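Hey,
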Amino acid sequence: MSFITLTITCDEEKREFLIAELSLFPFDAFEETETGLLASCEKDDYEPEEVKEVLDRYKVEYQ
């Protein structure tokens, strides 16, 4: 099983909203960091276009 982990740079106010939305894609592991959030899901379940749409809406940087 392979996983995708995104490193998202965001402020504390956006973290809760991002976790709620990304859990629908189905990211199932989250870790809050000093600069934002790490979000992980199984590689086979990753939907890059949908995830990009959500992250762009919140105007956050990610890799």
